[in-house]
Amino acid sequence: MGLLDALFRSSDILGIAEETLEFALESSEAAHPDEYMGFLRGTEATELGLDREGLVITDVLIIPGTESNSVSATVQTSSIPNDVKALGSVHSHPNGVIRPSQADLETFGRGSVHVIIGAPYRRNDWKAFDSQGRRTNLEVIDVDLPDSESFFDFTQADIDEELRG
Ligand SMILES: [Zn+2]
Domain span at residue 102? Predict the structure, then answer.
């Protein structure tokens, strides 16, 4: 048991927020031809206004110091904050093969859901796998994420307003 094992918790995962999935797809495309990698964090469904018990994946945590190239992304575990509760991971396969590699399988045991995104990073160019590397169903949930939306919706008008104030 290492640090990483302690970071992951298993809880009912209802799915991934639409916005979070789109963010991961866009980030993967931006990283191409390098591999993109992050950890998945969740929010209680009730906090998002859903009348369901469980967690919705709402965040992708990029670990500072991740070394990335087109073959693999290596995470420096020493840079992972202690309070991180990751549900799993997300990473891209720039070669477009959406299947866990042997190296992937060796790390999947640490979380309950692992998303692999493949080039060319279209809406359906991803699959979810469980800790054994088996295909698993991950529902895409259309839910409002108040924090990130207010950030992304920040326009030049808002900035001007802020400067005037
Ligand atoms: Zn991989």
Answer: 3-164
Say how far apart CA 60 and CA 68 lie, in whole Å: 16
Residue 118 Cα to ligand 1 middle (Å):
9
The domain that contains 57 carries what CATH number? 3.40.140.10
88 conformational bin, left if phi > 0, alpha if psi -120 to 50, beta if neither: left
| Ligand 1 midpoint to CA 162 (Å) | 43
Q: What is the pLDDT of residues 120-154, one digit of tens each?
A: 999 999 999 999 999 999 999 999 886 544 444 55
Cα–ligand 1 centroid distance for 131 (angstroms): 13
Domain count, the chain: 1
Q: The tokens of 67 are what?
A: 């070394």
Whether the pLDDT of residue 69 is over 60: the answer is no
With beta carbons less than 8 A apart as the criterion, state whether 54 and 14 touch: yes
What residues are labeled active site?
35
Please give all residues whose CB falls under 5 A of ion ligand 1, grouped by chain where several chains appear: 101, 104
